[in-house]
Write a structure and sequence with these properties.
- The N and C termini lie far apart (42 Å).
- It is globular, with a radius of gyration of 16 Å.
- By secondary structure, it is mainly beta.
- 9% of the residues lie in helices and 34% in strands.
- The chain is built from 3 helices and 12 strands; from the N terminus they run ββαββββββββαβαβ.
Length: 186
């Protein structure tokens, strides 16, 4: 059994809102959000790390490519623990790469590099870490998508309202690139 805390973001969370407190979270019991067909679970964020990094998981079914985007001030790590995830990334000189990541594979995306990913197998899971001088972006998922109380993937995809794309990403160091094209075929 883990303790619950009230936070600025949720009425009940298993993540303490202030830094400097050790804590433990049982599997799947972090702050959960649904975005499109995926489940994001936050285990540590900016509040606990004084804005230095976050730690989250993303679980999802085989599906469409997540839109191209970049983080001007944030570095991002992709570590695949289940299934297969195709990572697309472009460096600051415009060189594009793609790699199919399977369990145990790691991908690193520096700040200001366009990237996207696609779940290639049903029930794929990525462990993510993001860090940088701009802070952390873990609250992006529940603000663009919807907070989730239940465990598991969304029964119906959580598609954001169009107006959210104009405001939410900017607050969390996310810049979508709707005109971006990958030279490889997703």
């Amino acid at each position: 059994m883990t303790a619950e805390f009230a936070t600025p973001y949720r009425r009940a969370s298993r993540i303490p809102a202030e830094p400097g407190k050790p804590y433990f979270i049982e599997k799947g019991e972090g702050d959960r959000a649904h975005l499109f067909g995926d489940l994001f679970t936050i285990y540590a964020g900016g509040e606990q790390t004084e804005g230095t990094f976050n730690f989250f998981t993303c679980e999802g079914p085989k599906g469409d490519i997540i839109p191209a985007h970049l983080h001007p001030d944030t570095y991002e790590v992709f570590y695949v623990t289940a299934g297969a995830v195709r990572l697309f990334v472009e460096d600051t000189e415009g060189n594009q790469q793609e790699k199919l990541l399977t369990p145990g594979d790691f991908g690193f995306v520096p700040k200001n590099c366009p990237h996207a990913y696609q779940m290639e197998r049903h029930h794929s899971m990525v462990v993510g870490v993001a860090a940088g001088p701009g802070g952390t972006f873990e609250r992006f998922f529940e603000n663009l998508g919807v907070p989730a109380e239940e465990l598991g993937l969304p029964k119906v995809p959580a598609v954001p309202e169009p107006h959210k794309f104009g405001t939410v990403p900017q607050r969390y160091d996310v810049k979508f690139l709707p005109e971006h094209r990958w030279h490889t075929t997703p």
